[in-house]
Amino acid sequence: MAALAQASAYALRPFADALTFLTTTHVHPTLFPYPWASTLHATRVSMVYQNNMRKSGNNLSWGTYIAGYLIMCWGGMVISHTLLSLPPPILFSINPYINYIVPHLVVTLLFAIFPDILTSPNLDLVLFPLDALLRANAVTSTLTMISSNPAIDSKLTSSALFHVIIGAVASCGGGVSAATLKTWTSEWSFGTPVFLRSGVGIWGSLDVWAGSLVAIVYSTMTIHPAFDEIVPFEVRPAFALSSLGAKAVGCYIYTILFGLRVWKAKLTSAAVAKKGKGKTKTQ
């Protein structure tokens, strides 16, 4: 058992160290005193938002461009805080605006100068491990609030179902909100949420159910009372972990799932390209 625990700790350490760095280290102590985690999240969302905007073929006003991007960044946070009956930080602090708008403007300038980077077919292949870290951090940090904030109703904190719901919201709330409202277009409109559309499938809805899966794993491994009736008491010590260790497990789960999604997308793209070449030869 000791050997297994040591092996687990060794396997989890890279993700645990990465999470610690991202959440505790500032980009610059004076010029930009914001954590790498939120700054990189802002950067990645900006990249996805700009890519969607280009695909839509719309020219946006600066107001639409900034507001639509912020909805994509903060949708999950606002919804989860609302469910928790907590005020979201964007209502009482200017820091989130600086932390997110500045990277968005920098990335906008970068891709205006080097537009081909944004459309690189290998971008997701290179960045999916970072996406996994950031997504796991978002989900598990929200779950940590459930355990640590006494202002949250005990009916919610003691509900395993609520953990599952919060995991999904924290994982995909921003992306789903932006897609539902079509915030990367010049004319916003309310549509069907992405994960409810026909033909989405398991990979198209991954952002939703992966968040719930990580929530279950995290809350179970941190021995949250909400899961007392689900996990037998005798079994708990076998996989009990610290909060950081459980977060690292969440990173592993997201890395595997995101990696599989990228791999599947690559195979699909290659198959389509091969089929297209075959048609060209027969014509």
TrEMBL record:
Origin: domain of life: Eukaryota
Regions that span the bilayer: 62-85, 97-118, 160-182, 194-218, 238-260
Keywords from the UniProt entry: Membrane, Transmembrane, Transmembrane helix
Record bears the keyword Transmembrane: yes
Name this protein carries in UniProt: Uncharacterized protein
Highest classification ranks of the organism: Eukaryota, Fungi, Dikarya, Basidiomycota, Agaricomycotina
